[in-house]
Amino acid sequence: MLTFTIRRLVLAVPTLLFISLVIFMLLQLAPGDPMAQVPLTVPPEVKEKMREALGLGAPVHVQFFKWIVQFFWVEPQVLIDHIFGTTFSEGQLRVLSWQTRSPVMDIVVQRLPQTLWVVGMSYVLGVLIALPIGIYSAYRQYSAFDQIGTFVSMVGFSVPTFFTGVLLIVIFSVNLGWFPSIYDTTHKVTDWDSFVFQLRQMIMPVMVLALYNAAQISRFMRASMLDNLNQDYVRTARAKGLGEKTVVLVHVLRNSMIPVVTVIALGVPQVFGGAIITEQVFKVNGLGQLLITAIEANDLPMVQTLTFIFALLIVIFNLIADILYGILDPRIRYD
Asked: How many helices (H) and strands (E) does the chain have?
């Protein structure tokens, strides 16, 4: 397993480089000009100097090479300096946002906690809800619980999150006044009352995303459980006198989790990308809202960095899923 992990990590380097090249070229082909928002009263020669200051005057391959060096070499040094108090990155040029002229990763780090509070919590909650529902629905196939779970899952998976979010705002914020409709990103938890307020403002965006995630994962869990419940090894285990709880929760569940692990692992980066709309609905000042703002301002360094981070998450969690395969199923070996 260790050899496989090292081999996959080495293979991930050219994969990420190719992904970064594709993202960079696609953004270069995208229409728009960061100078379009500059007032018309600014002289052309001043605009040209501004373009050169933003790095727009250099050839495409030079811009790409600079971004690679800044992202993979300078930014890790900044992280090391922040943790250990060193000065490796002192005086080196970082990836700068065209819109704010601030380092892109500093802005990402500022927005990341808000996204983790909402998106991360919703995904964990969705998984915790989906797994027992999928297991029990498969074990009690065609029961009332299974029928209700199937209906709720279909609704949660079919209805878009922006509609669910607006519906919850109308019901629980406008009509009932139970929860705030806008997420206050400046709020800090200092005592019990501030903690309660944080929970209240998290409930609606978390439940919107958790419903969508739980609907998808529960269907995969149910289908995988049904496939394994009819296998010969299950009948053999029951014939040997093993208890029903042991058969279902030990033998069947372990084999059923193999395809579900793929859905859960690869769903993490998709949730970060898919939360863009939900963050816009509830005004969560997270990575999704940051990406929308960068696209509207044609801030290519910010868009490129965020898109590459999402791609990096896909590669990482794909590797995690492969490692979990070997843990769940001893028959899978990567030698």
From this structure: 14, 0
Residue 36's pLDDT is: 61
Nearest to 271 by CA among 128, 129, 116: 116
| The pLDDT of residue 8 is above 80 | no
- For helices 253-282 and 287-296, give the axis angle rounded to 10 degrees: 50
Q: What is the DSSP string of 30-48?
A: S---GGGGS-TTS-HHHHH
The model carries a pTM of: 0.74
Token pair of 100 as six digits: 């704010």
DSSP state string for 85-126 = ---TTTTPPPPB-TTT-SBHHHHHHHHHHHHIIIIIHHHHHH
pLDDT tens, residue by residue, 96-118: 777 777 788 888 888 777 777 77
Of the listed ranges 5-19, 22-36, 158-172, the least confidently predicted one is 22-36
Q: Is 215 exposed, middle or buried (0-12, 13-18, 19+ CB in 10 A)?
A: buried
Per-residue burial over 39-56, b if 16 or more Cβ lie within 10 Å, else e, is eeeeeeeeeeeeeeebbe
Return the CATH number of the domain spanning residue range 110-328: 1.10.3720.10
Q: How far out from the chain centre does Cα 284 lie?
A: 15
- Domain boundaries defined on the chain: 2-84, 110-328
Q: Rounded CA gap, 136 and 248, in Å?
A: 10
DSSP conformation letters of 150-164: HHHHHHHHHS-HHHH
- SS3 at position 198: helix
Q: Which long-range contacts (CB under 8 A, 24 or more apart) does 247-252 make?
A: 248/135, 248/139, 249/135, 252/225, 252/228
Distance CA 63, CA 65 (A): 6
Judge contact between 163 and 250, C-beta under 8 A.
no
pLDDT(304) > 70: yes
Residue 83 in 3-state DSSP?
A: helix
d(CA 187, CA 129): 28
